[in-house]
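Class prep. Sample record?

___
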Amino acid sequence: MKRIGKPVFFIVFILILFLTYTSVFGIYSENGDLTITHIKGIQDIRWGIDIKGGVEAVFTPEKGVDATEDQMNSVKSILDIRLVNQNVTDYELYPDFSNDRITVRFPWKSDEENYDPGEAITELAATAKMTFYVGTQQTGEPILTGSDVQSAAARYQQAHGTDPAQYVVELNFTNEGKTKFAEATKNNVGNQISIWMDDTCISAPTVNEVIDSGSCVINSSSNPFTAEQATDLANKINAGALPFGLTVESYGTISPSLGTYALKAMAIASIAALCFIFLFMCIMYRVPGFVAFIALLGQLSVSIMAVSGYFTVFPSFTMTIPGIAGMILSIGMGVDANIITAERIKDELWTGKTLDGCIANGTKGSLSAIIDGNITIIIVAIILILVFGPANVLSSLFGVSTTGLIYAFGYTLLVGVIANFIMGVAASRLMLRSISGLKFLRNKRLYGGKKKS
């Protein structure tokens, strides 16, 4: 076995500790009374209705509108998109065609303090007709409408030439929109094209060149976008326009079935469980057990990053009780993978081979068993995501209320198993091969071998 450099262990160890700390506590700074989020932590997770409670509202068409079934389905689709754009997966949304009503339930935002249901549903029910105009005023016919935009996404653009690194919003147009936008930019280089939601201008970028590729980037050189601003603009553009205005017939709050006190108790229990796992792995498997626990912290940090919106350009995922269950199950898979490897190494050591040879054979021999076990879990998780995700393929059979809950379980399970491959398999083996090169850790007994006679 080719040895890994001794510093590799310490580099990976420090990196995992950094990821663990930042994923749990985040990184924030103060600018006067304003708190700036650089990296999101656990406190930025959007907890599901079962944990934190939420809002229930019943929408009806505005006065004088006799909605058709197609229009009601269109409204449902747009509300679906608006909720998914905010990474809200724990929601219930179903239309009542006979009475022209749409009922929606969704959890509170992670930073919610006032818990005002009326304010929470304002953005969701906005009609928001989107139009594009040359200049900064709504004069004449619009050059494009919302139907000409295929998608919008916030992303981080690296420095290029004289352009600095910054957050931008990328627009992709339909075929018809591509033709319209190419013509508009051809005639208006140096002029502004404004984007409007109803009577509100949400952006007015300047045309720097002819754009005929079917996509463009909106940036702001004088006052660069923050991650939140870029994400918010992309979400508004993606949300589309409702076919008619919505009236709120009734609304109210939903009490959580679990509550924050139970969540705190769960957190304490999790810390106690991690301490027990640490002692068990170190006592039973010594050096491989210690390395396995470090890798387990790395796996846990990646799982938290996936639901907290670790990078501010991504919104937080809605975390429910089944989502927590999926994360715990994936951690169990991670512990199991490292136990298999440690046992294989122990078996090799009892044959009298060299330490390096035993580590090489043990890690190689355990890989197929680990892959087989995890691949089956990945297949199940993907099926759960596809069936019970935003597409709602089988919601008519299983009920809308199960959709977000099962999706959350599949999502955290999939992320956790992938994190296990990254940390529990790749990173742990790197660290083990590196730490075994330290002179004071070359004793086979530290890896489960026989006591020297």
Q: What stands out?
A: The mean pLDDT is 84.
